[in-house]
Amino acid sequence: MNEKLKYFTYSQNSLNTYKSCPFKFKYKYIDNINWKYDDADSREYYDSLKLGREFHLLCERYFSQIPLGNCQNKEFNKWINKIKDLFPIKDENIYLPEYDLRLNLNNKNLIAKVDLVKIKKDSINLWDWKTENREITYKNALNRMQTIVYLFLAEEIIRKNFYPTYDIENISMNYYQPGLENNIITINYNKKLHEENKLKILNLINNIESTDFNNENKINKNLNHCKYCEFNKLCNSEAINYEILEEDIYGS
Ligand code: SF4
Questions:
Q1: Mutate which of 14, 229, 237, 246 to test ligand 1's pocket (most atoms within 8 Å of Cβ)?
Q2: How many angstroms does the Cα of residue 236 sit away from the middle of ligand 1?
Q3: pTM for the complete prediction?
Q4: What is the CATH number of domain 47-217?
Q5: Which of 3, 31, 165, 193 is most deeply packed, by most CB within 10 A?
Q6: If you ran DSSP here, which 8-state letter would residue 144 be given?
């Protein structure tokens, strides 16, 4: 195993990066290459991610029940009103915004930062706010590494430790896109999915740790992914199209 992975904490972001292209994982997590703000287009792209983070901050304040502050962005004001309508704060629920879930799984560290964990009297609902305009489908949500890691950690950490009387079927992962109409995608959990998710996570970590990152000839390149990759210029001397770049994840 590469030295840099000895104390590495895996997230849905890093697992997803390896899955999309092992060589990209090397650039990002072994070489620590930061490709941000390289030119005007990338500046625009990363600025839009920053805007996304600002909206997440508004949501965090709302669910923490502290003042939202003076938001100048009209779109965000519209979106946060949608959030307020959809999620009126109720005393009987527990709201945990920007909640970190950390687990040591077979000596591998795993982390997820969830936009909102909402605990109701018989259910555990994870929520993720998506500010991009590209519509997420059920199939896409079901297969996302984010869904796999978040649901797995919710079962292992939240339900098993704090709500063992709840059924695993009452854990759900939900995506909400405030920029689109009525677009909530819900994935319900179950024991079978949990076992499958555990295997997927462990297999992927095993693949990562078996990769010889010191020998570039032995690292797989997924050439189908290049057009979505910020390292396209570095790998293939090709211009990067920020319109179709794979999304980054806010802060995690
Ligand atoms: S440009 Fe292509 S080969 Fe290079 S890291 Fe990105 S996806 Fe992998």
A1: 229
A2: 8
A3: 0.90
A4: 3.90.320
A5: 193
A6: -
Residue 69 — very low, low, confident or very high, per pLDDT cuts 50/70/90?
confident
Structure tokens at 85: 């309508």
The residues spanned by each domain of the chain are: 47-217
pLDDT band for position 44 (cuts 50, 70, 90): low
Give the tokens for residue 81.
Answer: 């009103």
Strand-pair partners of 104: 109
**Residue 171: is its pLDDT beyond 70?**
yes
User: b vs e for 48-85, b when ≥16 Cβ sit within 10 Å of the residue's Cβ?
Assistant: ebeebeebbbbbbbbbeeeeeeebeeeebeebbeebee
HSE-CB for 131 with a 13 A CA cutoff: 22
Is residue 71 within 6 Å of ligand 1 at its C-beta?
Answer: no
